[in-house]
Design goal:
- The chain is mainly β and 78 residues long.
- It contains no helices and 4 strands.
- Strands 1-2-3-4 form a 4-stranded antiparallel β-sheet, with no helix packed on it.
- Strand 1 and strand 2 form a beta hairpin.
- The two termini are 27 Å apart.
């Protein structure tokens, strides 16, 4: 049985998904975003490191189905 693709829409409460962000050529930053499912939406936390400098920012994103894929596997959005 194939495993379901992990998306922000099928995360369970307090489950998280990590997205690695790569810079362009010559960009030596290390960055990733963690998406945490919370009641009413998600908390996005982005951490970026450049040498000895580490930055972190977080934002709450309310739940919305605008960009959720339709159930019939089409590349069309609601």
């Amino acid at each position: 049985m194939p495993q379901e693709e992990q998306t922000i829409y099928n995360l369970q409460l307090h489950q998280s998904l990590t997205i690695n962000i790569s810079g362009g050529e010559g960009d030596n930053r290390a960055a990733h975003t963690t998406v945490l499912r919370v009641p009413g939406g998600w908390v996005y936390t982005t951490k970026t490191q450049l040498g000895d400098i580490l930055t972190q920012s977080s934002a709450f994103v309310p739940f919305i189905q605008e960009f959720k894929k339709l159930e019939d596997d089409e590349e069309v959005y609601e």
